[in-house]
Specification:
Length: 91
Amino acid sequence: MGKVIFIDVDGTLLDYENKLPASADRAIKEVRKNGHRVYICTGRSEVEVYDYIWDIGLDGMIGGNGSYVKDEDTVVMHQLITLEQCKHIVD
């Protein structure tokens, strides 16, 4: 049975210039080839996860600081704040 690997994006998977090191690309492809699943965990929303990040072969993500969970093409959870909560935060 494979393992599930969770990786942070900014400053971990990507360097501080938003570049993906070739070593990270190779490592993720290797662990997936060995039957493990790889997810990113990030404060980013899905739209902020650029194609070159997905292209390394991720199985999904936990994004928006935990408010959005996606497994392959299935959105498992997407929690939004209400308009009232938003107004309270802004006030």
